[in-house]
């Protein structure tokens, strides 16, 4: 998928968080981090792997809460950003960053308490192999997010420079079955696409988010959601 070349460019890594998680994007950042914490539960002293860790948003957050965490990514430029963030937060002793392939994880079976992947599966060329590896090295929790096929995301997906894979419920059910994972909870959110929030100031994003949640709370509203969070158990 063309997204892999886009993702590994130095200039993308340098501007990644500023473009996605400033302004209205802060709201997205808060929601995603809460989703991860809800899935893992108390993180202190837990051994966690984040695949496709990027600039270390979640890796550093979990290290700050006492997790023993490894962040793995294919992009050297993204990992460098993560290391700088870890140094600034003084959590280097709680985490390791590694460059590697998520389809061939260099860890033994059942090595981690939890394995997470955020903002990854929309770029995954072989999602079944990645999910199988996540399941293999986790002894408890597997957590990841996807963009929904039939949602506002599909309206502009074709125009994105990195490409994007969208998933239907049927595809997720099949992937979980093939990986022998039990779905504990799925949460569907963001009627309005991420791109809208990133394009506006935080002061405007908050009232729009209120409308978003109201629509999602209506009967059948969740079917319009563009993002899904999948909390699975081994």
TrEMBL record:
Pfam families: Methyltransf_25. The keyword Phosphoprotein does not apply. Keywords: Methyltransferase, Transferase, Ubiquinone. It comes from the Archaea. InterPro entries: Methyltransf_25 (IPR041698), SAM-dependent_MTases_sf (IPR029063). Residues 48-139 form the Methyltransferase domain. It is an enzyme of class 2 (transferase). The keyword Methyltransferase applies. One of its GO terms (biological process) is methylation. GO terms for molecular function: trans-aconitate 2-methyltransferase activity. Its EC number is 2.1.1.144, 2.1.1.-. This is N-methyltransferase protein. It comes from Halorhabdus tiamatea SARL4B.
């Amino acid at each position: 998928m063309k997204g892999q070349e886009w993702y590994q460019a130095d200039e993308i890594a340098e501007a990644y968080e500023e473009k996605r998680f400033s302004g209205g994007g802060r709201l997205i950042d808060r929601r995603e981090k809460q989703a991860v914490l809800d899935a893992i539960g108390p993180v202190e002293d837990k051994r966690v792997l984040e695949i496709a860790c990027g600039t270390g948003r979640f890796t550093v957050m979990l290290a700050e809460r006492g997790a023993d965490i490894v962040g793995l990514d294919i992009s050297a430029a993204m990992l460098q950003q993560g290391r700088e963030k870890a140094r600034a937060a003084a959590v280097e002793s709680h985490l390791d960053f590694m460059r590697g392939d998520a389809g061939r994880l260099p860890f033994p079976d059942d090595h981690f308490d939890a394995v997470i992947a955020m903002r990854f599966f929309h770029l995954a060329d072989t999602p079944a192999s990645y999910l199988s590896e996540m399941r293999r090295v986790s002894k408890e929790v597997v957590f990841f997010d996807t963009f929904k096929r039939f949602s506002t995301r599909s309206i502009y997906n074709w125009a994105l420079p990195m490409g994007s894979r969208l998933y239907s419920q049927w595809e997720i059910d099949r992937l979980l079955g093939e990986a022998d994972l039990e779905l504990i909870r799925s949460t569907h959110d963001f009627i309005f696409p991420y791109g809208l929030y990133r394009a506006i100031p935080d002061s405007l994003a908050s009232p729009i988010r209120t409308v978003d949640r109201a629509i999602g709370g209506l009967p059948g509203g969740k079917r319009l959601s563009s993002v899904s969070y999948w909390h699975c158990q081994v």
